[in-house]
Protein: UDP-3-O-acylglucosamine N-acyltransferase
Amino acid sequence: MKFTANQIAGILEGEVVGNPDVEVSKLSKIEEGTKGSLTFLANPKYTSFIYSTEASITIVNKTFEAEQDIQTTLIKVEDAYKSFSKLLEYYNQVKLNKTGVEQPVFISESAVYGENIYVGAFSYIGENVKIGANVKIYPNVYIGDNVVISDNVIVFAGAKIYSESIIGHDCVIHSGAVVGADGFGFAPNEKGEFQKVPQTGNVILEDHVDIGAGTTIDRATLGSTVIRRGVKLDNQIQIAHNVEIGENTVIAAQTGVAGSTKIGKNCMIGGQVGIVGHITIGDNVKIQAQSGIGRNIKDNEVLQGSPALNYGDYNKSYVHFKNLPKLANSIHQLEKKIKDNE
Structure:
């Protein structure tokens, strides 16, 4: 896909300074720009690179004034960073704008779907599935029976959506994600063997939810596992049965949330965090990476460590912890002096 400076300026409502007909077909960092690439300058620390970059087009703030000769064509906008982000979003929309049903696929006769749908080759759509308009289902996707997918959803290649799951508007489910697999439910029988407890619930993703690649969200034992509006889950996260995650919470990679835990709104949870089951985490909570959460957490707490402490208390404790070898040596020297004086 190629775009001219004029076309890009039209999308961004910007002003072209240089050759309006120059074309670009790829993106680059300003310090690594090559002919035919588009870049941007937003951070003043990178200003020197605009005089050496070989990028064909550079997006800059309107306030930028060149102090030396430059080769790149400029597009001047109000905010270069926001404009570049807008352009990336536009580019993705164009790139992902596929329609039609490829072959071979299997679509049950009882399935219904809206306008402008795309279904990639080797996908499977089960019985009584309801799919909205403008949905993109990439190759090798599995969608089980009675699934509901609302408008403007993107399901990338290889994702699996088990039966009864409900997907809201404008969600994105990345490759390898599994939505609705059985929860980890087993009970010992009279022989001491673990016997499976049937998992009869489902998973609900509300609107504007993003699910990262390789992330798994288990169906509820009874009722629903619920991911509320605006939640963003990174790659390789485990969400267990009957968990509820509140609106606009973000969770980084390799975090695990055990069964029936409830997480509040607007929380920020770092990578490799472990959260036990059957607890409640309040709103606006921040949990640092690699923390272990084993208790209820009140609103607005900031935590670090395993088991997790208040962030300030953790840092104070860490000062002592890292000095433990010195303290141990001091104690050893004192013990030796006392022994020598006896």
Remarks:
- The mean pLDDT is 93.
- Helices lie at 5-12, 80-95, 311-322, 324-341.
- DSSP finds four helices and 40 strands in the chain.
